[in-house]
Structure formats: structure tokens, C-alpha cells
Amino acid sequence: QVQLMESGGGFVQAGGSLRLSCAASGRVFSDVAAGWFRQRPGKEHEFVAGVTWNARSTDYASSVQGRFTISRDNVKNTVYLQMTNLKAGDTAVYYCAAAGSAYSARVLQSPNDYSSWGKGTQVTVSS
User: Fold this and answer.
1) What is the strand order of the sheet 68-73 is part of?
2) In the chain, where do the E strands start and end?
3) What is the pLDDT of residues 72-106, one digit of tens each?
4) What is the C-alpha to C-alpha distance for residues 3 and 17, in angstroms, rounded to an integer?
5) CA-CA distances (angstroms) from residue 6 to 56, 62, 104?
């Protein structure tokens, strides 16, 4: 399995920006898809953004489309989530995840497709 550790969360005012990072270690990370999920208070885990192993494809939840950008650096074994124009509704614990199978050609949106998870980082946006 891949070990994942998120960082970069914090407190920000509405309209502000944050960049989350997810550092991977353990088994090879560069050949698996990665994603960001979030869990808002009282809600289930929800897909935020995903990227294929080779970064050729990305996908986003409609609620963050145009505001968030996922990227990865396979040399640094790190996935990023750049978040701009943050809203109070983006307040959540954000988790990064790595897929269990390698070389998927599509972005994975279901939590069931991911086998490794970080512990999460809190993002709080004040209105």
C-alpha cells in the first residue's frame, strides 16, 4: 500500500485560496490514479477531484469545477489541490487517496476504487 500524508489545510476567509499537498511513500505511487475527497459535517465522503496516473486526465465535482485544480508531480510523489475562490460550503476535512490498481486510463470517482487514504486535513472557510 501507499502511505499518504496531507498538508496545507487551515482557516481562510471566503474568496481566499489554499493549496493542499499529499505526499506519498511506500509502494510505487506514480503508476496509480489519485484523488481528493472531502467530508463535510454530517455528510458522506464526496469526490472532489481526480487525476490519472500519468496526469493526462483530470475530473472535478461540479461544485468545485473552475475553482479547484488537481495536479501531481510523480518525481516528488506528491499530489496537489489548488483551491481558489473558496466558499463557506467548502469547509470540510479533505482526504487524498491512491488507487489500488495501476495504469487506469480514466479518472476514478468512487471511493471504492481507492485503497490507500491519508488521515485528512481540515479546511475551514469563514463567510
Assistant:
1) 2-7, 18-26, 78-83, 68-73
2) 2-7, 10-13, 18-26, 32-39, 45-51, 58-60, 68-73, 78-83, 92-102, 114-117, 121-126
3) 999 999 999 999 999 999 999 999 999 988 888 89
4) 26
5) 23, 23, 23
